[in-house]
Design a protein that fits this description.
The protein is built from eight helices and eight strands; from the N terminus they run αβαββββαβαβαβααα. It is of the alpha+beta class and 311 residues long. A hairpin with a 2-residue loop joins β2 and β3. α2 packs across α4 and α4 runs antiparallel to α6.
């Protein structure tokens, strides 16, 4: 803790600090150990399906339908992506279901794409197998930048954001000096009510979106590239893509203020998206346990709370 003490923080002993540590990043202390409630998980069903770029509208509609109905099957999750690599655009979807049932009904909306898929790794396996599969597709040793936004559910908005993505990638891809590793991706990650309810157990969670507004879509803008000489072009494209997408969502009345902390870019202010009440509460807890703002002033990295309005 800021005063040098080593303490065991629980919901029973320090409910305010326990709340703050769940979503407050590195602003309240250095966590050396934590206990997790675990659940048995045997084999499950999932994998990746890849489709041609022209399938993006059909995929967006399937994602919209999935999210509208996701509350009926909390064992299911997806991440839909649109990406550019080696001169080509493509679209894909990661499927996961906690039960070993192939193509469960919650994914029926995606069956319209079956004849268009160019790759399919769906199978029954364990979580380690699926984790290793996704990790194998992440390029190593390249430069990378994330930014994010959170929208309400809309296939039309997804399609518009993809169009913006394509225009920004096309504007710079010809000027990239080292195309090795140039891999822009936009991912749509549906968030429905059930996971948010779990996050709110044991006194709440500053990190958790409200359960009364939604369902939501986390949108991740992710670019990887190889050379420092391309930084200016790539970073400008990411900024344009993020700002234009947010403006499109706002114009449709589909923008939320929430910014997913784990995907936020360095210029974003994720704590501002927690809501004024949660942010004020976090600042008050910080002043109680760290009155000299040690973790605000002296600990580098991460997102800060903006004590006294200073980030």
């Amino acid at each position: 803790m800021a005063d040098g003490r080593v303490a065991n923080i629980t919901y029973q002993t320090n409910p305010d600090l326990y709340f703050a540590l769940r979503g407050g990043a590195n602003n309240f202390g250095i966590v050396t150990k934590f206990h997790l409630e675990t659940h048995p998980l045997g084999e499950m069903w999932g994998g990746v399906k890849v489709y041609p770029a022209a399938a993006n509208l059909t995929l967006s509609k399937a994602v919209e339908t999935f999210l509208d109905n996701a509350h009926t099957d909390p064992d299911a999750s997806i991440i839909a992506s649109y990406s550019y690599r080696d001169g080509n655009f493509s679209t894909s979807c990661i499927f996961d279901h906690a039960k070993p049932q192939a193509n469960p009904p919650i994914f029926d909306a995606f069956l319209a794409l079956e004849n268009e898929k160019t790759f399919d790794s769906t199978r029954t396996a364990n979580l380690t197998s699926f984790t290793n599969e996704l990790n194998s597709g992440v390029p190593k040793g390249f430069r990378q930048r994330f930014t994010t936004a959170t929208f309400k559910n809309s296939a039309a908005l997804q399609s518009q954001v993809i169009d913006i993505f394509v225009s920004e990638v096309n504007a710079i891809q010809g000027s990239i000096t080292n195309r090795t590793g140039f891999n822009p991706i936009i991912s749509f990650e549906p968030i429905f009510t059930a996971p948010r309810e779990v996050l709110n157990r044991n006194g709440g969670n500053a990190f958790s979106p409200p359960t009364t507004d939604g369902p939501w879509m986390f949108v991740l803008f992710s670019f990887t590239w190889a050379s420092v000489t391309d930084d200016a072009n790539v970073l400008r494209a990411i900024e344009n893509l993020t700002n234009r997408s947010i403006a499109a969502a706002k114009a449709k009345g589909l923008l939320t203020e929430y910014i997913y902390l784990n995907d936020a870019g360095p210029e974003q202010l994720p704590f501002e998206g927690y809501g004024a009440g949660n942010l004020q509460r976090l600042r008050q807890i910080s002043k109680k346990y760290d009155p000299e703002a040690i973790f605000q002033r002296l600990l580098p990295g991460g997102f800060k709370l903006g004590i006294d309005g200073k980030y």
